[in-house]
Amino acid sequence: MDPAGAAAIAEAIFAEIENLPVDAVGGMDMGATPIIGAVALQGYRSGRPLPTFIVRKDVKPHGTMKKIEGPIPASPCNVVIIDDVVTTGNSILAAIDAVSAVGHRVLLAISLLDRNAGASEALAARGIPYQPLAILDDIGISNAPNRKSSEIGIG
Questions:
Q1: What are phi and psi of 27, to 5 degrees?
Q2: Which secondary structure element, helix H or strand E, spans residue 52, and what is its range?
Q3: Crossing angle of helices 33-45/3-17, nearest 10°?
Q4: What is the rounded CA–CA span in Å between residue 116 and residue 143?
Q5: 146 pLDDT band (50/70/90 cuts)?
């Protein structure tokens, strides 16, 4: 939620998608919500405004009662799915499943950080191109088993 961080993240994501024939960008609420907002602003300022959307974990019993909220174009369209941190990939796959179920095509999945715990393999098994902006090793953290939090700089 830091303004400078949001700008840097949006620039990095936009650089990954600027040459794709993408029609909209979205992800699972709550992790992707601030990120896709920043990407929307970056696209607008770059002369390529992209609609954004969120995928709800649970449909609310009031309001629009939609699983996918936001101005996503009619099916079929090309989308990019974004998540903040991925571990096993369950959350990003749930967002992919939701948009695929209504006829959209996922061109790319992007995460800010991949914890190297199975998401990359899960997305590859589904044939979804995937690009993490960083992995644990990039930030100096190893996810080797049996390491104490003090050994990896936490706590």
A1: -175, 180
A2: strand 52-55
A3: 70
A4: 7
A5: very low
What class, spelled out in words, does domain 3-152 have in CATH? alpha beta
Look at residue 141 in the predicted model and tell me its pLDDT.
87
Amino acid present at 138: D
Q: What value does the mean pLDDT take over residues 97-119?
A: 96
Q: What is the pLDDT of residue 62?
A: 80
Token representation of residue 128: 């979804």
Instruction: Answer yes or no: are the C-beta atoms of 86 and 116 closer than 8 Å.
Output: no
Give per-residue pLDDT as tens, 19-67: 999 999 999 999 999 999 999 999 999 999 999 999 999 887 787 888 9
Strands (E), 87-152: 105-114, 130-132
- List % helix, strand, coil for the chain (3-state, nearest 5): 35, 20, 45
Longest dimension (CA), the chain: 49
In the structure encoding, which two tokens stand for residue 82, read together?
Answer: 């974004």
Which residues lie closer than 8 Å to 148 by C-beta, 6 or more apart? Answer: none
Return all residues near 28 (Cβ < 8 A) that are at least 6 apart.
Answer: 54, 55, 57, 83, 91, 92, 94, 95
